[in-house]
Design goal:
38% of the residues lie in helices and 14% in strands. By secondary structure, the chain is of the alpha/beta class. The strands form two sheets. The protein has a seven-stranded parallel beta sheet with strand order 3-2-4-1-5-6-7, sandwiched between helices. A two-stranded antiparallel sheet has the order 8-9. α3 (87-100) runs parallel beside α4 (119-134).
Length: 253
């Protein structure tokens, strides 16, 4: 999604007090590929060996400083901003948010909380949403993004936790894929944002440059992964476009 001059650049914060629920997967495979030149900010003790978290591609805030996150996001207000807050930094971030967020200014357009049907992840996700709301974030700016596990059990648990007419919103149709391709991508040091569209084959994406394709110097395993990523990409784009419809009505469309 390319934004023209003068248009709206979303600032999206992905967080949860639960580890391993898909926050970084969403940052690099759901938002980064489909926004034009997003500023990627990672807060907390991320593993430096993760290939798509290299310093030249992202900003890292090792300390749990809400002010530093907000200041850095403000410096890049002329482009989309995606912030991924590691679970070990969430409590400090929320404590700062409670002191600084106001009913008129929460600094971000949307807070996305990935959830799975597993009990611990659900409870920590709901705890995160409740703390955000206590920090003056309106329910309509908090979005639960479920995984496709146990046929929607996580959606039922979330709805049962909140009184009717209250609570965060829940993505209606989309979901985080429980897909082994993500593991293969991790092992190969790539993510969906590494795909580039082939100029001569619209809708087809490649992990290698054109010169490599012309000389047929393709690693079979990489070619197979590229095909799997081509299948995954449109499904992730569908989820991305649905998430974008949950931006608050007060945000310019």
């Amino acid at each position: 999604m390319k934004q023209e001059s003068g248009s709206f650049y979303p600032q999206i914060c992905i967080l949860s007090a639960a580890g391993g629920c898909g926050k970084t997967t969403l940052a690099v495979n759901l938002f980064q590929p489909f926004l034009h030149d997003p500023c990627m900010i990672f807060m907390g003790a991320f593993q430096e060996e993760i290939p798509f978290l290299k310093e030249e591609k992202a900003h890292f805030i090792r300390q749990s400083s809400r002010n530093e996150v907000v200041d850095l996001a403000g410096e890049h207000a002329d482009r989309p901003v995606i912030i991924d807050i590691c679970s070990n930094a969430v409590e400090a971030f929320l404590a700062g948010a409670k002191r600084c967020f106001t009913a008129r200014d929460t600094f971000f357009d949307l807070f996305v909380i990935p959830v799975r049907a597993e009990r611990y992840t659900l409870h920590r996700g709901m705890w995160t949403a409740d703390r955000l709301h206590e920090a003056n974030v309106p329910w309509e700016q908090i979005l639960f993004l479920p995984a496709r596990v146990k046929e929607g059990a996580e959606k039922d648990a979330l709805r049962n936790h909140y009184a009717e007419g209250t609570g965060p919103r829940i993505l209606a149709d989309g979901f985080i894929e429980e897909n082994p391709v993500f593991g293969s991508m991790y092992n190969a040091d790539v993510c969906l944002a590494d795909l580039s569209e082939l100029p001569d084959v619209p809708g087809r994406w490649s992990l290698c440059c054109q010169s490599e394709r012309k000389t047929h110097k393709r690693v079979p395993a990489l070619a197979r992964l590229e095909g799997e990523m081509n299948d995954l990409r449109p499904r992730m784009e569908h989820v991305f476009r649905e998430v974008m419809t949950y931006l608050p009505e007060s945000s310019p469309a």
